């Protein structure tokens, strides 16, 4: 094995022998190192706790840790936003453990978006308490028991019934997630009354994950939690943490509905980091839909880089967006190593959700110990597992947000105080990826996105109001604070809420908690079942079932592939059988939109840009089967019922005359607008923290509600998720980036990197790339916020 190399040298070796004129590296920059800034331990921290941290190698805390701990200890809600490996756990452990030791009745609640992160934090706290207890060996046994009887305990879907009962009765520090808090704790809060009466702290870890629909649900769960705790006599302080969150104080305030402070100055050390952007070249003699050229896949390029880095001795994580992608990348990297360095084959592995807990722990130990040199992973290792000493990170496709990119990038050089590390973003065949690798400032020079949440969305708010009323009567001041006056009036008129002297109560016979899916939609669920074993593979929201588990759809569960045979929406069942095909599927649907309300509008001469409420009627009409190379195998027709979605959209209209003046003839209107719509959908995640699968679109050369050439981009969630609102607010930035992405793509007439969409209901026909550039250029010229 070669001596490990890092940064630019490691990158140079990976492209050795490549023609400089065709180098896949489109940009490289270096982020400098940083020295640490220390602070004294707060006077209120017990000496034995200080000794416990010392036993773990922490002699003095960093400034941001102490500042955050002081805010929380003084009773202020606080959001800590500093880089990965900046010791955010210590910042909340200080006030929580101190308080639990000083007050024998005090309790704390920890929330994380993943079970893996919660499990990692329990291990950290348990180790700390054990060290603190050891420091008391010379003291009275009763004092030692203070440390060992704080009883941190997981309470999630994997916790068995007996342990849940024990946790309710004895644990003073519960580790859970928003899903279990909603369905398993708040719904039965009377059994937790003692815990809530003494609840002093709530930790919201990795708070940047709470965005979109999930964030809106979580915001209402947290507000319900606070009202229940206060009704029981508690008054908890909320501590939020994140490595990548814009406006952390404002973001926490949006989540809990109360003022919060922020700590953002990172005082931890950091080694030098090299960041490279990598664009795979087009594949020769391989074409996709309608003969479009396609690039080498991000997975294949990532596998080659992973193998190269392993040969160089660089400990590397390679992030992929899907479980299947992870398995394929690890398999291909091992295959490459078998040809060049067979002794290293067993030092590369895959890691993802779906593995048994024992297997995950074994892999985590192998990564930390250096037994594994290269690991392909989903975002399961983006956060949660404390892995130190990694030398390189490969990001196989832009992960959807700047925040997630820096989370993944931050795994490289973790806990290194000197030396170099390397991060490589490998672009997928996608408009946003194409744009970013050619406009590095849009990724590396841009702050992380503000989290988009809308807890006032009536389709999200109303079910939570029913839950809140089931838990405690709703009071007038709460309804006002939650901006829920209209929603409560509607629920009362529907007979679901009853007003009495003490407030609004839930009507008899309604059990609302089970009707809410915290992670996604609202309403019924479709069960996905393996017909050969009757095993439940998972669930999908009924509103998305026809797109994702239609007959013939490929469904992946824990790394295994299944093909759906039948979808029964009446019974809520999707029946599937195991199969390992060499193709993937993508649904195609027809869409019709009617405008129900204009929320806001901006007129710019012959261009009008509007934020509108719409009814979107869509019908799945078929699906494509695509080989793993990207080549389209065939198109299969389906006959599925139509569905209607009430949501929000950003819409723009242009006059036919302005389009013709821009060089787009009437006959080219459909292709030009269609291509511009596809590209805009692909680039909306640049300004809104969403995925392109969270949004949809429609273009037409004459819409019946406007009488003009019109393009819509809409949220794919009932009532909207805030994405269209962000598109309207940042229309100029969004459209300028879309134009640049299409114009900079090296294909001749359109490809998946610019104007083709993997979910187009019309089979990406017609599409006019040149016309789209003209339309987008016209939009940029016409739109001005100063007009």
From TrEMBL:
Under Gene Ontology molecular function, one entry of this record is:
nucleic acid binding
GO annotation (BP), single: nucleotide-excision repair
Q: Which UniProt keywords apply?
A: ATP-binding, Helicase, Hydrolase, Nucleotide-binding
Which SMART domains does this entry report, sorted A to Z?
DEXDc, HELICc
Q: Name one Pfam family in it.
A: WHD_HRQ1
Does the keyword Nucleotide-binding feature in the UniProt annotation?
yes
Helicase C-terminal domain spans which residues? 305-459
The residue ranges of the Helicase ATP-binding domain are: 69-263
Name it.
DEAD/DEAH box helicase
């Amino acid at each position: 094995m070669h001596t490990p190399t890092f940064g630019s040298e490691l990158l140079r070796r990976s492209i050795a022998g490549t023609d400089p004129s065709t180098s896949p590296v489109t940009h490289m920059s270096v982020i400098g190192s940083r020295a640490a800034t220390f602070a004294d331990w707060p006077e209120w921290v017990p000496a034995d706790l200080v000794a416990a941290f010392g036993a773990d190698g922490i002699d003095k805390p960093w400034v941001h840790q102490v500042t955050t701990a002081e805010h929380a200890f003084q009773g202020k809600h606080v959001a800590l936003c500093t880089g990965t490996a900046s010791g955010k756990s210590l910042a909340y452990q200080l006030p929580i453990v101190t308080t639990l030791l000083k007050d024998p009745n005090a309790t704390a609640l920890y929330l994380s978006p993943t079970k893996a992160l919660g499990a990692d934090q329990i291990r950290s706290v348990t180790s700390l308490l054990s060290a603190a207890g050891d420091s008391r060996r010379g003291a009275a046994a009763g004092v030692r028991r203070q440390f060992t009887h704080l009883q941190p305990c997981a309470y999630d879907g994997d916790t068995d019934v007996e342990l849940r009962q024990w946790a309710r009765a004895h644990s003073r520090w519960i580790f859970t997630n928003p899903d279990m808090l909603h369905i398993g704790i708040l719904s039965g809060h009377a059994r937790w009354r003692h815990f809530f009466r003494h609840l002093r702290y709530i930790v919201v870890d990795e708070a940047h994950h709470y965005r979109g629909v999930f964030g809106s649900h979580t915001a209402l769960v947290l507000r319900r939690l606070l009202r229940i705790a206060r009704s029981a006599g508690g008054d908890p302080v909320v501590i939020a943490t994140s490595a990548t969150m814009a406006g952390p104080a404002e973001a926490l305030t949006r989540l809990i509905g109360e003022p919060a402070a922020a700590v953002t100055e990172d005082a931890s050390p950091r080694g030098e980091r090299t960041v490279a952007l990598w664009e795979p070249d087009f594949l020769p003699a391989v074409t996709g839909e309608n003969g479009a050229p396609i690039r080498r896949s991000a997975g294949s390029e990532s596998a080659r880089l992973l193998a190269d880095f392993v040969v160089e001795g660089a400990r590397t994580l390679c992030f992929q967006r899907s479980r299947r992608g992870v398995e394929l990348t690890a398999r291909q990297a091992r295959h490459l190593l078998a040809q060049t360095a067979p002794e290293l084959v067993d030092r590369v592995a895959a890691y993802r959700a779906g593995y048994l807990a024992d297997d995950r722990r074994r892999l985590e130990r192998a990564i930390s110990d250096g037994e594994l040199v290269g690991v392909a992973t989903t975002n399961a290792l983006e956060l949660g597992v404390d892995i130190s000493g990694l030398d390189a990170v490969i990001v196989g496709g832009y992960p959807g947000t700047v925040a997630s990119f820096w989370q993944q990038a931050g795994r490289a050089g973790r806990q290194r105080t000197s030396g170099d590390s390397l991060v490589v973003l490998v672009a997928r065949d996608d408009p946003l990826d194409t744009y970013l690798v050619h406009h590095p400032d849009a990724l590396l020079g841009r702050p992380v996105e503000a989290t988009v949440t809308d807890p006032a969305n009536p389709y999200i708010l109303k079910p939570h109001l029913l839950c809140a009323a089931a838990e405690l009567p709703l009071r007038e001041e709460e309804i006002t604070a939650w901006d829920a006056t209209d929603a409560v009036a509607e629920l009362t008129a529907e007979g679901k809420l009853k007003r009495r002297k003490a407030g609004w109560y839930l009507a008899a016979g309604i059990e609302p908690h089970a009707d809410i899916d915290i992670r996604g939609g609202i309403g019924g669920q479709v069960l996905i079942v393996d017909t050969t074993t009757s095993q439940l593979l998972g669930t999908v929201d009924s509103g998305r079932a026809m797109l994702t588990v239609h007959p013939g759809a490929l469904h992946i569960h824990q790394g295994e592939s299944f093909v759906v045979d039948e979808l029964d929406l009446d019974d809520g069942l999707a029946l599937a059988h195991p199969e390992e095909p060499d193709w993937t599927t993508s649904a195609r649907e027809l869409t019709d939109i009617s405008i129900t309300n204009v929320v806001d509008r901006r007129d710019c001469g012959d261009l009008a840009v509007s934020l509108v409420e719409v009814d979107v009627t869509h019908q799945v009409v078929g699906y494509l089967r695509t080989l793993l190379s990207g080549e389209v195998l065939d198109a299969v027709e389906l006959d599925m019922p139509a569905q209607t979605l009430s949501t929000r959209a950003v819409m723009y209209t242009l006059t036919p005359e302005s389009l013709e003046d821009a060089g787009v003839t009437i006959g080219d209107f459909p292709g030009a607008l269609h291509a511009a719509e596809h590209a805009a959908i692909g680039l909306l995640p640049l300004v809104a923290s969403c995925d392109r699968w969270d949004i949809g679109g429609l273009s037409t050369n004459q819409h019946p509600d406007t009488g003009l050439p019109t393009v819509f981009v809409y949220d794919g969630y009932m009532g909207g998720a805030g994405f269209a609102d962000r598109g309207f607010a940042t229309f100029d930035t969004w459209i300028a980036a879309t134009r640049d992405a299409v114009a900079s793509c090296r294909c001749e007439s359109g490809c998946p990197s610019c104007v083709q969409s993997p979910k187009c209901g019309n089979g990406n026909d017609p599409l006019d790339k040149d016309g789209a550039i003209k339309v987008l250029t016209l939009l940029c010229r016409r739109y001005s916020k100063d007009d």
